[in-house]
Design goal:
Elements (H helix, E strand, L loop, with lengths): L4 E7 L5 H14 L4 E5 L5 H11 L8 H25 L3 E5 L2 H11 L4 H12 L6 E6 L2 H8 L12 H17 L4 E5 L4 H15 L5
The structure holds P1-(5'-adenosyl)P5-(5'-thymidyl)pentaphosphate.
Length: 209
C-alpha cells in the first residue's frame, strides 16, 4: 500500500528538529516533491487537543501510564488521518517525533516497561513505520539553553536525570536499528546537519545528491 517516503526526526527538546524539517521540506518542495510536514503529539484536531493536555504544566499529577496512552492515542489518530493517506498518495511525509519518542521518553525516561510501550505503539501504527529516522543528539543542558526564556512545557520541566535517560534511550534505539536510524551531532551547524540528512534522504526519493 505504501508508496511515499516517511521520514522522522527525533531528539531532545531544542535539538533542532523543527529547523531541519523546515530545511528539508523547503528543499523537497523546490524540487517539486509533494511534501507533508507534521508533528507529534498532534497533527490532527483530536491530536492537537490531546497535545494541550499532555504539555499543560498544571497537570503535575499525570501518571507515566496516562502519558503513554495519550501519546499512543494521538499517534493512532495521526497515522489514520494524515500519515497513511499521504503515503498512499505517494507523498514525502516528514514528521517531528514519532514512535521512537514514546520509547525514549515513556519507557527509558519515565520507567514504563519497554515491551508495554512498544506494544501500544505497534497497535497505533501497525505497518506504518518510518523509512528513515534521524536522531539529533545533544546534551540536555544544551537543548534547554537553546530554548532559553521560552516557558517550559510539562515534559520539559522534568528533571535533568529524566532527559539524560531519554538521550541514552534514543542512542540505544539507534544501536538496535542502524539500518533505519542515523544519529547526528546536533551541535554541528544547521547547514552541516542538513547536508547529512539530505545525503540519506535524496536516494530514498530517487534523486542523486
Ligand atoms: N513527547 C513527544 C513524549 O514524551 N513522547 C512522545 O511520544 C512524543 C511524540 C513535545 C514534547 O512531548 C514529548 C517530547 C517533548 O518534550 P514539542 O513542543 O513538540 O514537545 O517540543 P520539541 O519536539 O522538543 O520541539 P522544540 O521546539 O523544543 O525543539 P526542536 O524542534 O528540536 O528545536 P528547534 O529547531 O525549534 O530549535 C531550537 C532552537 O535552537 C536553534 C534554533 O534556531 C532555535 O532557537 N538551533 C540551533 N542552534 C545551534 N545549532 C544548531 N544546529 C541549531 N539548530 C537549531
Amino acid at each position: 500500500m505504501k508508496k511515499g517516503v516517511f521520514i522522522t526526526l527525533e531528539g531532545l527538546d531544542g535539538a533542532g528538529k523543527t529547523t531541519q524539517i523546515n530545511l528539508l521540506a523547503a528543499k523537497a518542495q523546490a524540487l517539486g516533491i509533494a511534501t507533508v510536514t507534521t508533528r507529534e503529539p498532534g497533527g490532527t484536531a483530536l491530536g492537537d487537543a490531546i497535545r494541550k493536555i499532555l504539555l499543560d504544566p498544571s497537570y503535575k499529577e499525570m501518571l507515566p501510564l496516562t502519558e503513554a496512552f495519550l501519546y499512543a492515542a494521538s499517534r493512532a489518530q495521526h497515522v489514520a488521518e494524515v500519515i497513511r493517506p499521504a503515503l498512499a498518495a505517494g507523498k514525502l511525509v516528514i514528521c517531528d517525533r514519532f514512535y521512537d519518542s514514546s520509547l525514549a521518553y515513556q519507557a527509558f525516561g519515565g520507567g514504563l516497561a519497554f515491551e508495554f510501550v512498544r506494544y501500544i505503539n505497534e497497535e497505533a501504527v501497525k505497518d506504518c513505520k518510518p523509512d528513515c529516522t534521524f536522531i539529533l543528539d545533544l546534551e540536555p543542558r544544551v537543548g534547554q539553553a537553546r530554548k532559553g526564556q521560552m516557558k517550559a512545557d510539562r515534559i520539559e520541566q522534568k528533571a535533568l536525570a529524566f532527559h539524560e535517560r531519554v538521550r541514552e534511550g534514543f542512542l540505544q534505539l539507534a544501536q538496535k536499528q542502524p539500518e533505519r536510524i542515523t544519529v547526528l551531532d546536533a551541535t554541528e551547524s544547521p547547514e552541516a546537519i542538513f547536508n547529512a540528512i539530505w545525503a540519506k534522504v535524496a536516494p530514498l526519493l530517487g534523486l542523486s545528491r
